[in-house]
Design goal:
The protein is mainly alpha-helical. It has seven helices and no strands.
């Protein structure tokens, strides 16, 4: 084993570029972690296109199949391991989008506090006054994807 300090954060040359597009919501992760996600999908026979289908529908098809009551519901998606990976990726994307929305909210609250009291802003947003300063940050990160997968850029 060789040491490579901070070497994980370099370019993702060893994986297909289509994985980079599909897993864009993970671009802030280390290259090693990113490649491991892609490798797990490939090991179950899932392609970037297969994953994108489920990210684009927000997991709707997976949910409908799971709720169908059919004992073989996961077969059409590559089996239970493939479904677990797909559902986890939908969750990772949704977490990314929730963080992105929280960043936008934080920036807007910080700007509101420039013009209004914390009491006024808290009342308008329906949160406790004590909470408002914790919600206000003016450092919207730029590592978020610009559009959700179901939207065109």
């Amino acid at each position: 084993m060789t040491s490579n300090p901070r070497g994980d954060s370099g370019e993702r040359e060893s994986i297909d570029s289509s994985w980079s597009a599909v897993l864009a919501h993970r671009r802030n992760e280390s290259a090693g972690a990113f490649e491991a996600v892609a490798a797990r999908f490939e090991a179950t026979g899932l392609s970037p296109t297969d994953v994108m289908v489920h990210l684009a529908d927000g997991g709707d098809a997976l949910y409908a199949a799971a709720a169908s009551g059919d004992p073989r519901w996961s077969d059409q998606y590559g089996g239970t391991l493939a479904v677990a990976l797909l559902a986890a990726e939908v969750s990772a994307l949704m977490s990314h989008l929730v963080s992105r929305a929280a960043g936008v909210r934080a920036l807007s609250i910080a700007e509101l506090l420039d013009d209004y009291s914390a009491v006024t802003v808290a009342r308008e947003l329906g949160v406790a006054r004590q909470k408002i300063y914790g919600l206000a940050r003016d450092d919207l990160n730029t590592h978020f994807i610009p559009t959700a997968p179901w939207r065109t850029p």
